[in-house]
Amino acid sequence: xxxxxxxSLPAFRRLSYSVGHFLNDLCASMWFTYLLVFYHSVLxxxxxxxxxxxxxxxxxxxxxxxxxxxxxxxxxxxxSYGKRKTWHLVGTISVLLSFPFIFNQCLGCNLDTPQWVxxxxxxxxxxxxxxxxxxxxxxxxxxxxELVTCEHEKVELTAYRYAFTVIANITVYAVAWLMFHFQTQxxxxxxxxxxxxxxxxxxxxxxxxxxxxIGALFSLLFHLGTREKGARPRQEEEGSSPGECQxxxxxxxxxxxxxxxxxxxxxxxxxFYQVAVLYMSTxxxxxxxxxxxxxxxxxTLLLPKKYIATIPLVMFLSGFASSFxxxxxxxxxxxxxxxxxxxxxxLAFSFxxxxxxxxxxxxxxxxxxxxxxxxxxxxxxxxxxxxxxxxQTQSGAFVYGAMSFTDKVANGLGVMIIQTLHPxxxxxxxxxxVWYYHYIMVIVTGGVGVLAALSLCTIxxxxxxxxxxxxxxxxxxSINSKDFKDLPEVAGLLGSDREDSESSEQPSVx
Length: 510
Hints:
68% of the residues lie in helices and 0% in strands. The chain is globular, with a radius of gyration of 23 Å. The longest helix has 36 residues. It contains 19 helices and no strands. It is mainly α. The chain has a single domain, classed as MFS general substrate transporter like domains (Growth Hormone, Chain: A), CATH 1.20.1250. Helix 4 packs parallel to helix 6 and helix 13 crosses helix 16. It is a multi-pass membrane protein. InterPro entries: MFS_2, MFS_trans_sf. One of its GO terms (cellular component) is plasma membrane. Belongs to the major facilitator superfamily.
């Protein structure tokens, strides 16, 4: 019997894996929180133009994501470096070279330059950045089911990954607060120190360069410390606690092997669409609330600009604290119920914002609700995606790519619709901003939260599982059955949350 330490990922490798998305998280924090603020409130772009830039980025990301997912599964990688880490390296370089240009003034432009010229200038950098971001994200997520096979270890690794996501966001907002603080001390004019404008271009430029520098160091740590394996062991530690790590393979059942799923076979799996809708809803809540929280603070609550750093900071500090209890909580009540608890916090935030349009300092309380709720539903949705993939790691990147495609396009279209319906047709905000961003915050959390709840109900009624392929599909899969003659039948991929802790019940694959 192998030693239990061999069955789990060493602590250093867990750490090195967890920081592999740090650069992406730093950039994503700036992208979603400050892109509209920078282009509309600082550079003076019209609402529609600012929305177009974000939409272009989201569509580029959405198109690149499934294509990269497919190619990441298909290509062998660069020599012995590994296919996932190769794509991660390509993505990292693309992000490092393009991101600093996005949060800076157009080179050669001035106040008289038409906005469509600036729009044309920024678009290529945004497309390159989104390609690199997608390549890094998909390759990093696809490593989870390849590094660990135990379901609770997947949740743990996802939670560690999200913990560093929160640290990345905290870093961005802390640096932003420091820059705004030093700017306030240097100037005496309240119009400059309290309101956003062209004077803040150096702040966002310095913030983007800081993000790139820190992210590059953590990406180096990931590539030095993470070892990509071609295949995981075929069985888990026999002496592991049933409640802690349920084997994916039923050793007592001898049956023909289950075919490896190709990308087209995933499209015939009902659970694929269930998880996709849940993941899309989760990302809509997290990303749209992050995108419009700064506009809500600035134009609805009329707070000083330092609040666009301190309120998101409180949100992600709360999320960071909650990430440490997600593994024991999901083990105790299951992933679905843990997700539901997070969703309740999101809905509580929505009702609070709806009923208190002039909350003032109480906004810190709502920030805690939104931070903990967002962290919980995001970690659980990623854990459910890893559960869906199970031992089908050879096509895992396609699954993550398809999930990400739905959320990127949905987020981009959502922002474009919100920007198009904006009541103000001028570059500066009109009185309509006050009520408009108030109801936007209610809708993107409470409204989308209802959709997420409906999607969660379908998973509770029809648990996540892989449907057996037909005989014709089985023949079409290019598998050498001789290599799998000793493998038992896949008994289930954690078909329900209850089965997380009841290892004696092994569900069969339909």
